[in-house]
Amino acid sequence: MKFDMGSTTLSQLGRSTAGSSEDLGTLIKLLIQSAEPLEGKFNGAGKAAFDAFKAHADGVTADLNSSLSAILGGQSGMDTAFGTGDGELRDNAHQNMGAANFDAARFGAR
After folding, report:
1. Per-residue confidence (pLDDT) for residue 72, from 0 to 100
2. SS3 for 15?
3. Residue 79 to residue 16: CA distance in whole angstroms
4. What sign has the CA pseudo-torsion 38, 39, 45, 49?
5. Between 97 and 6, whose confidence is greater?
6. 10 exposed, middle or buried (CB, 10 Å; 0-12, 13-18, 19+)?
7. What's the CA gap between 82 and 56, in Å, rounded?
8. Mean pLDDT over all residues of the chain?
9. What pLDDT, on a 0 to 100 scale, did the predictor assign at position 28?
């Protein structure tokens, strides 16, 4: 299995997710606003369902935003971890190359 990821992949993903989070919040607000003209037009179970939708819409929006915020935090943490790991790998490689005896690896060289 090969795992190949660019050094900016996670930071780009984080920016994209942040934009999606803002878009989602806006869409939910627009949904709530577009449903306002329907208020008072329902009776019985329809009215109860509509009232429940209105009552829970803000909570759903907050829950979705909280979840997306947690995803962003995870992406940021992964980006930091991969960046740190990449830097450590570079530093270890340079340190080991400095200690290596490349002349000893040449066969037949005298």
Report:
1. 84
2. helix
3. 14
4. positive
5. 97
6. buried
7. 39
8. 81
9. 80
